[in-house]
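ENTRY TYPE: paired fold submission
RECORD: A
CONTENT: sequence, then structure tokens
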Amino acid sequence: MNRKGGFRTWPRHAFWQAVALTVLSYVIFAWGIPALKYIGIPSAPVPKSVVIEFMAIALTGILIFVSENESRWTEFKQPIEATLLDDDKRLLRGGFLVAIPLLVGYVTYGMVRPRVDAGTGFRAIHPAPPGSITFRGKAMQITGLENPLRKEGNLADHVKEGRRVFYQNCLPCHGDRIDGQGHFAHGFSPTPLAFDDPGNLPQLAESFVFWRIAQGGPGLPKEGTPWNSAMPVWENFLTEQEIWSVIIYLYDHSGFQPRRWEEAKGAPAAAPQGGK
């Protein structure tokens, strides 16, 4: 298609191929990935910040594609140059000059306008843990449960294994400094737990942390709603030993000690409560 030509060959035109790839990328990132749950693949809504990040990567690849050689790059630029320069495109240019500022203004207003919506209810930030859970079909008593790895093997090896698990799975949300400021964190509400906060890990028994990691946001009791944690159900991806080892790493890296179960008349005391 040349500047004055028709659109009969548009499916093979570099510009419209780039447009189609851009639209397809957005559909996949914004709607395709969350829709995987309907075919049995674990997935969750992709935060807007992550969609923007993925789209930036996709657009970079698309620009590399259309600039692969000089002829393709020239073909890609033809519709743009025609819109900007041709006399018969004045109305189209005027439409863009009006529509683009309006669109930018609308998006900006939506981002900065104050929101005063009333909350839908009360949420317990630190819901009480259950007395027992089922982990991969095995019943586990949470009350009084201690981390078994602290009495098995070499603690330094457990810390090393826990570091591997953390960096492969937890870092994007909880951050390299375990401060809840990972590069995906600002896309979630509530934000990921800050493990370096003395109001968190030191107040929790390791069994509570195991429960929260294993069963994630979907495992929160009713009082944890309506703003559920975005924590995945990690028992679908991690073994029991991997979860216990990452817990050891978190306490070792933060410098905190876990809260211990106290004995009262020969029975464990009430479960400590905690966040995310």
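RECORD: B
CONTENT: sequence, then structure tokens
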Amino acid sequence: MLLGRPDATNPEKVAFTRTLALCVSREFMLFATGRPSPVTHWLRDLAHMAHGECGGPGVGVIGLCLTGGFGLAMSVDPVVMAPVLGEPSLPALRPAALEVSDADLASIRARTQSPEQFRVHGYRFKGDTLCRAARFEALRRALGDAFLYREFPDEDGNPSGFRAQGKPPHSVFTGDLIDQPGAATRQAVDEVIGFFRERLEAETAPAA
């Protein structure tokens, strides 16, 4: 786990002390631009290990908030086949910046133009002040039609989430998710599951 402990009973919040530790961690590049957080190198190794154990065409990646852009940084590795960027919030003070080097971005762009038809999915709420529209616009400029994204009206966020605190919704797949049939955020969940299945399920050999 990058944050917290693997305990489903924990409330969905990050303690102040853990937040402070994260802000000074060398593993998360909260403010720097033009290069990925160092932890993404470890995550690439983890992706290779998972792929070796499970097989299949490759692995999927979904990042949320501070880790939202990790899927893009990891996409330089061919083993990553289905990256999803959930409200990517880094670099924190540069809303139009991307957490990836120019060289890696060029490699990712080359993947989008290859026969594998590599695609990157992204999701955010329109009023989100942590992941602003400028970042998705930068991704659209960088990746063109290979960046498939959805931006939800704030009204689509869970009334019991950030909106209950008088803040715009932020967490598409967690705290601001409305997990009900027909809800826009639930449709996004189903879309991500479909994306993973499309890209990661091994093709069945034709019957003899």
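NOTES ON RECORD B: Residues 14-25, 204-208 have pLDDT under 50 and may be disordered. The first helix runs from residue 16 to 23.
STATUS: closed
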